[in-house]
Amino acid sequence: MNMKTYEIKITGSKYNDNYFFFAPKDGEIEEEVAAIMKEMKAGNISRFTVEEVAKMTALEKRYQVAIDKIGHARLLNLPEQIKELLKNTKDLKTKTELLEEIAKNI
């Protein structure tokens, strides 16, 4: 199975995030883009970019491991202050360290 990695950046009224999408582990990229487009039509996203990433750095791998350990459902259920902090943290190293701390406490 050939795994492809995409970096997705979204901005808008409801979502402001940079994340990695792993196909086929996370699904098909076309389905992810369709979901983003649906959110655009709803007015929640104003802009997005999708770029295929050749190879993940060690920091990007740490980020993904932390996200996987926490799980998307738990991320959505974090306290609002923590979600805001993560949303507003643009530096990948700092965001990764925050996620790793959250993952330790799960």
Structure characterization notes:
The structure is a single chain. The protein is of the alpha+beta class and 106 residues long. It is built from five helices and three strands; from the N terminus they run ββαβαααα. The protein has a three-stranded antiparallel beta sheet, with helices on one face. Helix 2 (58-70) packs parallel to helix 5 (92-104). The longest helix has 13 residues, at 29-41.
Stretches where pLDDT is under 50 for at least 5 consecutive residues are none
DSSP E strands, number: 3
| Helix share, percent | 40-55%
Chain-averaged pLDDT: 90
The rounded distance between the terminal residues' Cα atoms is 31 Å
Largest sheet at a glance?
3 strands, antiparallel
Strands side by side in the biggest sheet: 2-1-3
- The H/E string reads EEHEHHHH
What attributes characterize this protein structure?
5 helices; 3-stranded antiparallel beta sheet; 106 residues; globular; alpha+beta; 50% helix; single chain
Helices, strands, pairings?
Layout: E1 4-11, E2 17-23, H1 29-41, E3 47-53, H2 58-70, H3 72-76, H4 80-88, H5 92-104
Antiparallel strand pairs: 1-2, 1-3
Provide a short characterization of the protein structure.
50% of the residues lie in helices and 21% in strands.
